Amino acid sequence: MLELINESNSHIFDALAQNYEDEFSPTSGKKKNQGGKYSIDVDWRTPNVGYYWKEGSKVVGFSIVESIDGYSEIVDFYVVPAYRKKMVGKNMAFAVFNQHPGPWRVRQIRGSEAATKFWRKVIGEYTNENYSESQIENPPWGLSVCQIFNNQN
């Protein structure tokens, strides 16, 4: 179930975002600061929209949506490892897509082959394979794989 991230529950995001950055650091090249934390580049606050995914009462993932160049775009997406391969990511992605009808763009940085495989499968299923894929420049990450679709009915 989707739940909005807000001031009263943002401490959960702070903890999950550190886990996400730690797991992603071999690809991103990010390093922890002197306080042992990663800098968090993406914010859940307006104009972005942040969502948790809950299984029962447990928060098991998050997604941050930003409006970029007329597209809704998932700029961060994380599922707690113990909940992967159980359709949690797919269910969260579908629910997030449904919250934002219109044009979508989802990008994966170079070296994120598992993420690209995941998004191709999820977006393909969500759109009945009605999406395009290309490579686009994605500052500061360089050339990235990008899926584009429109879920406006």
What is the H level of CATH, i.e. the homologous superfamily? Gcn5-related N-acetyltransferase (GNAT)
Which structural class should the secondary elements be placed in? alpha+beta
CATH fold annotation: Aminopeptidase
Query: H/E order of the elements?
Result: EHEEEHEHEE
Oligomer: single chain
Output the strand order for the largest sheet. Answer: 1-2-3-4-5-7-6
The count of strands amounts to: 7
CATH class: Alpha Beta
What number of domains? 1
Largest sheet: 7 strands, mixed
What would you call the shape?
globular
The first-to-last residue Cα distance is 23 Å
Strand content: 25-35%
Walkthrough of the structure:
With 153 residues, the chain is of the alpha+beta class. The protein has one domain: 3-Layer(aba) Sandwich (Aminopeptidase). Helices cover 30% and strands 35% of the residues. The chain contains three helices and seven strands; from the N terminus they run E-H-E-E-E-H-E-H-E-E. The chain has a seven-stranded mixed sheet with strand order 1-2-3-4-5-7-6, with helices on both faces. Helix 2 links the parallel strand 4 (71-79) and strand 5 (103-109). The mean pLDDT is 94.
Summarize the structure.
The chain has 153 residues and is an alpha+beta fold. The protein contains three helices and seven strands; from the N terminus they run βαβββαβαββ.
Layout: helices, strands, pairs:
Blueprint: E1 2-4, H1 10-28, E2 49-55, E3 58-68, E4 71-79, H2 88-99, E5 103-109, H3 113-127, E6 132-138, E7 142-150
Parallel strand pairs: 4-5
Antiparallel strand pairs: 1-2, 2-3, 3-4, 5-7, 6-7
